[in-house]
Amino acid sequence: MIGGTACTPPHAGGWAYRSGVSNATEIREFLSSRRARIGPERAGLPMYGRNRRVTGLRREEVALLADISVEYYTRLERGNARGVSDEVMDAVSRALQLDEAERAHLFDLVRIANIGRSPSRSPGPVRVRPSIRRIVDAIATIPAFVHNGRLDVLYTNPLAEAFYSEHLRDPIRPANSARFLFLDPRARTFYVDWETIAHDVVAALRGEAGRNPYDRPLSDLVGQLSTRSEEFRVLWASHDVRFHRSGTKRFHHPLVGDLTLAYESLELPADPGLALATYSAEPGSPSEEGLRQLARWTETRAKLTTMEAGTSA
Question: b/e string for 101-124 if b means 16 or more Cβ within 10 A?
C-alpha cells in the first residue's frame, strides 16, 4: 500500500509570492474575473446603452449592489484588503453572486492580506495516522484512500492501489492526481471526461492555494504544471475555484474497462488538510461488477506475491 514518503518534484518555476505574484494581485485578478462574468441583466440592474466598454459589471455597479462606496470597492479590487470586514466581504460576495467555494476563497485571500506574509518554508512529510490507516484498510469492497489539498495520494487500501495503478506508476512520491492528469498521456484514456476533471482539479488546487499560499510543495507543483502544460496554464488563469467533495466520474480502467463511480471526499477534522476519499458503484451495475473483478485481481496478485516470498525464503 502507498505510504506518505515525501519527495519534492523537479522545480519548474515558482508560483504566488515566491515568483512575485502578490496577494494583492491574487485578490485583484479573482475579483475582476468574477465581475467580468456577470452582466447587468443577471445582476438585476437596468441596461443603459448597448456599447459598454467592460465585460460584465462595472466597479460602480458592484459597489451599488454591495451598498458600499465606489472608492471602497475600487480599493478592494486593487488588492488593498487591509481591515476589510466580514460584513463587507459578505456584501461583495452577494453582489458578485459567488458560490460557497468562491466566497470561501475570497475570505481566504482577505485573511492572508490581513495577517501579512509568514515565513516561507516547506512542511515536513505528511504521515497518515495508524488509526486512519486501519479505517482505510477496513474498507474492503470499494477503493478508499487518503489525500491532501495538493491532491497527493498519501495512503490507499489494496483496491484503491489497483484502481490507481496508472497514477502510481509515477516514481515520484507521493503520487499526485494533478501531475498524472496533466503530464501523463494515459490520463486522457483513464478519465473519460478529461476536460471536466481537469477543470475540477485546477479549481480545487486554486482553492488550496488561497488557503495555504506559503505551501512550497504546492508552489512547486503549480510551477511544474504551468511550465509543462498549456491546458493547465489556461485553466489556472481563469481563477475558478471549486470544492472537490463529491460527484460522479467515468473511468476506463486498463484491467476492467469502463466504470462509472460516485466519488466522496470526507475531511478529517483531527488532521487538517487531509481527507478520506472513496469510489463506489451503483448496486447491481456493470461498474459494481467491474470493481468486484478488480478486487479479485487484487486478491490473486496478493496471493502470488505471498507465494513468491515464501519460495524465495
Answer: bbbbbbbbbbebbeeeeeeeeeee
Quickly list DSSP for 161-192: HHHTTTGGGSSSSSEEHHHHHHH-TTHHHHBT
Domain that holds residue 246: 130-310
296 by DSSP, 3-state: which? helix
User: For the CA atoms of the chain, what is the radius of gyration?
Assistant: 22
pLDDT, tens digit, 9 for 90 and up, residues 73-118: 999 999 999 999 999 999 999 999 999 999 999 999 999 988 865 5
Q: 207, 210, 201, 214: which is closest to 153 by C-alpha?
A: 201
Exposure of 98 in the CB half-sphere (CA atoms within 13 A) = 28
Q: pTM for this one?
A: 0.87
Strands 246-253 and 274-280, bridge-based pairing:
unpaired
Check which CATH number belongs to the domain holding 83 and give it.
1.10.260.40
